């Protein structure tokens, strides 16, 4: 008898604990949760708390409270990226040993001043200032100044050759990471950027299907490149539409969208809310 083993579906919800969750987060969590459950798969919770300036323990507690309120249970232990820093250092070391990284001493102001920089999916493309430093100056400054690590994107792309990834809605996509320029892979204040940490962890947690908002569609070009460079598998991607309010604007803290905690406080029934989100009838929140 011939038997084939198909990897069971694994999805994750990966919020950053930098504020209270709103209905847009709930929608994303439900989509990832239901996708796994419908196929007898696993649903994981990963707290993306590598930003020491913005992450707060009370928001981690809030995420747990909100997911439980919505009736969403995750499998296994919740993972915190702050406990995974050695893994990110390892991946960074491998990319550095391959000659694909360089230290960057620039401040945000330095980059903003180089106003001629073209814009990419994440704003101004880095003008390459620190890439051109002479080796002696670079070594001297590394001893004295805080620095980030950037990827030399053209060198990286030349290394991997053409890459593709699959999105459930958009279909087969040719990866185009060049438009991002030399993105940061390790920050001055953390040994990883979002792009590096998410790529390493999706592989480590054996995530088969990344279900997340359309706002992260573009970032997938970089994640696909990093997967190829690090020898990691590529999950399937499902970028879902973002929830909008009654005026058609995307829900966001800075626009004053009500948090799930606010909805709870005014007596909203969580199961009715989850149902409305599942039916796609939750605009106007
Ligand atoms: N931590 C990211 C966020 O809260 C999401 C990461 C992801 O789903 O890839 O926007």
Stretches where pLDDT is under 50 for at least 5 consecutive residues are: none
**What is the highest CATH level, the class of the largest domain?**
Alpha Beta
- CATH fold annotation of the largest domain: Rossmann fold
Strand content: 15-25%
Looking at the chains present, what oligomeric state does this protein adopt? single chain
Query: What does the average pLDDT come to?
Result: 93
Number of spatially distinct domains = 2
Enzyme class: ligase
Domain Glutamyl/glutaminyl-tRNA synthetase class Ib catalytic: 9-279
Keywords: Aminoacyl-tRNA synthetase, ATP-binding, Ligase, Metal-binding, Nucleotide-binding, Protein biosynthesis, Zinc
Family: Belongs to the class-I aminoacyl-tRNA synthetase family.
How do the strands and helices of this protein lay out in sequence?
Blueprint: E1 10-13, H1 23-38, E2 42-47, H2 57-69, E3 79-80, H3 85-97, E4 101-104, H4 108-113, E5 119-120, E6 123-124, H5 135-144, E7 148-151, H6 153-160, E8 164-167, E9 171-174, E10 184-186, H7 194-204, E11 209-213, H8 219-230, E12 236-240, H9 260-265, H10 270-279
Parallel strand pairs: 1-2, 2-3, 11-12
Antiparallel strand pairs: 4-7, 5-6, 7-10, 8-9
The protein binds glutamic acid.
InterPro entries: aa-tRNA-synth_I_CS, Glu/Gln-tRNA-synth, Glu/Gln-tRNA-synth_Ib_cat-dom, GluQ/Sye, Rossmann-like_a/b/a_fold
Family: Belongs to the class-I aminoacyl-tRNA synthetase family.
EC number: 6.1.1.-
Provide a concise account of the structure shown.
This protein has 285 residues and is an alpha/beta fold.
